[in-house]
Amino acid sequence: MRTFKIAICEDDRDQNEHINYMIKKSCIFLSSEHQKFEISNTFYSYESIFQFINSSSKLPDIYFLDIQLSSKPDDKNGIELANLIRNRQKTAQIIFITTHDELALLTFEYQIEALDYIVKSNEEAKIQTKITQDLEKSAYKLEEFLEKKNNIFTYQIGNNFYRVNIDDIYYISTTPFPHRLKIIAKNEISEFTGDIKNIQDKIPGFIKVSQSYLVNMKNITSINLKKRLILFPTGEEIQFAFSAKRKIKEYLMAD
Fold first, then answer.
1. What is the pTM of this model?
2. Parallel, antiparallel, or unpaired for β 152-157 and 160-165?
3. Which domains does the chain have, with CATH numbers?
4. Which of 47, 85, 141, 187 has the highest CB neighbour number within 10 Å of its CB?
């Protein structure tokens, strides 16, 4: 099970408690047997989270930060804190919760790449929805980072994320249902929502042999160029498009 750790930094104790409550509601809604969201750290000042970040080897995955962390204008603020987090942790997902939406423009100067800005004055139901959506987006982005690092392909079914080693995949294909894809791998067959072109961009080592099939050429048993057939270890055969013949021959020659 993948656990996504969440940190909150808000100097106002009442607001901190309320944000905690709302995030916990979203955590319960999104958590399942395959993934879990939990608040791991709560901070009330720049100094306390600064010390934690500089002393801890295990940092949270997702941060909810207030922009104004003190009533004193010269004190460190949430934007400077986000900059510190980003320099230490490139994959951190940062969401600002603030009454000062105009300060969001400053994040571009720091090149923080915050995931979202939640304005405290919005209706509570809207804030709750945004928190849930941001946690979902954060999980997706973190899984993408993990894919690139560990040669993992991640796909989503409902609120759950599933991972498979790219080297174990035979092919990914379309299905009769729009935006529904099928993945065939060693010991795994699943269907999930997606677009085959977007998948091709995520796994550049695969060859799109037709409008319907994206094939891992490392996992084929044989190719019949005359009949335009690809055979897999499972015994299954698929036919590739005439337009893909050149790409396949180039791959075989390079190999």
1. 0.66
2. antiparallel
3. 2-150 (3.40.50.2300), 164-254 (2.40.50.1020)
4. 85
